[in-house]
Amino acid sequence: MKIAPTAFLRKTYLSSFLQALLLRVDLLWLQLSYFATLFVLGFFVLANLEPRNPLHRPKNFDLFFTSVSAATVSSMATVEMEVFSNTQLFVLAILMLLGGEVFTSMLELQIKRFKLLQTKKTQYFNSNSCTDLENNSNSSKNDTDLKHDSMKFLGFIVLIYFLTVHISAFLLVSLYISLVPSARDVLSNKDLNIPVFSTVTVISTFTNCGYLPTNENMMVFKKDLGLLVILIPLALLGNTLYPVFLRIVLIILRKVSDKEELEYVLRNHSELGYGHLLSGFRCRFLGLTSIGFVGIQFVLLMSMGWKSELMEGLNPLEKVIGSLFQVVNTRHTGESVFDLSLISPAILVLFITLMYLPPYTYFLPREDTDNNKCNEEQKKGLIGFMLVSPLTFLIIGIMLICISEADNMHKDPLNFSVLSIIFEVISGYGSVGFSLGYSCKRQLQPDGNCKDAWYGFAGRWNNISKLILIVVMIFGRLKFIYKNGGKAWKLF
């Protein structure tokens, strides 16, 4: 079959343009463009699909907010989830999947592999003589080829990890709901089918988004301990312990295989530029730190909430499993089995602190001897060095929202408290999705038209405040941009 010359030229020009784009454009701008595309496409698809009830169609701004929240895996909600039809729920699941950290890291790894290959070709064609090329290649060509093949091998392993976890979790969740009448009745009463619920729940939990097809999130399943036990490790596999499990998989593979690429991946983790591939030394402390954070939250929540209204109606085992599920979701999944507005303010402060921390935060009691990491942050130059720190950015965001909601804070101070706003903003920045919600009972001036709804506190904000929160969510999803921000400021 012959290809028309015009079509061939178009294909060639398009290929050349894409190659030049990948080589010349900074990874930051590629990610911004990628997410902006997801936001816009997600909004248009959601807006053109019929909701579950056409009479309760969400406003366009709320649909855009939901699209941004799903793609940044923040799960901040301004509308009830049961408003969306099954088709719209699948669209949200796709946005969560494409915006998830593991999936985008695979794309980033492929871009870096492509750049390495193009760099190698450029060096080859720029060589002045075959003799020079041969002399340089004997020592470096094999290293370049091995690095390229190792990146390809790592990408394949991550893909298998990604697919295996999703498929296994989908089968387990579907099987549990099919066999347990209480869980099955919940979906039946809400007119949700098992495949839709299982797909959205598994993707949302692994990507650490927190969007679920039910208005009440996991509160309606607080007595379904089997489902909670399935989702607890799933949240960790795609979040704080992903580097730990990835390294465990690689170590197991090394015991059954002697591939040269596998050995290279384990020994030269920092050379590959894959931020989720950490050394064994770091993985040990990351695992211990993550378990420590969960343990501290668990002990405090159990000790202060055991006999409180928070756990009313639950037996001891349900309290233990529910509390464990709740504290695991603080970093950064955002699924909840308890009403967060009933939790002690002291614990809420702890939640705020842990939501703010990046997922791979770990305690290191001695100096890290791993000095081979790629210093990409140093390439960001003076501007990145002088820009404000993440904490400063959040303070500015909180102040702007307080100014925007000043009238509501004056008329409705119990709902529009500073703590509630701080909690909402930090939750959006940390891509968690926790919210203290809004209660008509807390109004000092009762409004007869007020109606409690199953969406986050941000759903009661005006559009300006929501827009500020959108910026915060995007900033939080791309927080690596400001990793070294604000270091030009010296505090004495």
What's this model, at a glance?
The chain contains 19 helices and no strands. The protein is mainly alpha-helical and 492 residues long. Among the domains are: 231 residues, no CATH class; 102 residues, no CATH class.
Give a topology summary.
Elements: H1 5-24, H2 27-48, H3 60-71, H4 86-99, H5 101-125, H6 130-179, H7 181-189, H8 194-206, H9 225-237, H10 242-256, H11 260-267, H12 280-305, H13 316-328, H14 345-356, H15 381-386, H16 390-404, H17 406-411, H18 418-429, H19 463-477
By secondary-structure content and strand pairing, the structural class works out as mainly alpha
Q: What is the helix/strand order?
A: HHHHHHHHHHHHHHHHHHH
**Low-confidence region ranges:** 128-133, 136-141, 371-383
Which band does the percent of strand residues land in?
under 5%
Q: Total number of helical segments? A: 19
Helix content: 55-70%
How far apart lie the N and C ends?
73 Å
Q: What value does the average pLDDT take?
A: 85
Oligomer: single chain
* Major sheet size, sense and barrel closure: none
Gyration radius, in Å: 24 Å
Q: What's the number of extended β-strand segments? A: 0
Shape annotation: globular
